[in-house]
């Protein structure tokens, strides 16, 4: 099994954990992914961005700025905040967040 597959297994376990703002959000989960990957000898990074996303606010779809984070292994974005395709607050789907400014750590 390759590094990317191992990282995806770790990410899937993190996705299944409940999302809690401030205690188990996308940033915390991304750093946990990085730490677990490093324990297995897999090079991983955390990407934190300010991006844009479509959100349903007050009954209307708007484009709003959001802060989001994910893991990166072998140059591939690995979402960890929620199950893939699942919508969060205001109908935001993490995979659809488009970064405007991103920092890799």
Instruction: Work out the helix count.
Output: 2
Report strand order across the widest sheet. 3-2-1-4
Distance between the termini: 25 Å
SSE string, helices as H and strands as E:
HHEEEE
Compute the number of strand runs.
4
Largest sheet: 4 strands, antiparallel
How would you sum up the global shape? elongated
Relative strand content: 35-45%
Determine the mean pLDDT: 93
SS-derived structural category: alpha+beta
Oligomer: single chain
Q: Low-confidence segments, ≥5 residues, pLDDT <50?
A: none
Residue share in helix = 25-40%
Integer-rounded radius of gyration: 14 Å
Number of domains: 1
List its traits.
105 residues, alpha+beta, four-stranded antiparallel beta sheet, 2 helices, elongated
Can you tell me about this structure?
The chain is an alpha+beta fold. It has helices spanning 3-16, 26-39; strands at residues 44-57, 60-73, 76-78, 98-104. The chain has one domain. Helices cover 27% and strands 36% of the residues. The protein has a four-stranded antiparallel β-sheet, with helices on one face. A hairpin with a 2-residue loop joins strand 1 and strand 2 (60-73). Helix 1 runs antiparallel to helix 2. The protein is elongated and about 45 Å long.
């Amino acid at each position: 099994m390759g590094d990317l597959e191992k990282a995806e297994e770790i990410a899937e376990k993190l996705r299944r954990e409940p999302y809690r703002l401030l205690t188990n959000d996308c940033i915390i989960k991304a750093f946990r992914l990085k730490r677990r990957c490093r324990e297995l000898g897999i090079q991983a990074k955390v990407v934190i961005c300010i991006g844009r996303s479509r959100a349903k606010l007050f009954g209307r779809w708007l484009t709003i700025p959001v802060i989001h984070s994910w893991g990166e292994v072998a140059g591939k974005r690995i979402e960890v905040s929620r199950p893939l395709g699942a919508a969060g607050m205001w109908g935001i789907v993490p995979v659809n967040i488009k970064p405007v400014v991103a920092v890799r750590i």
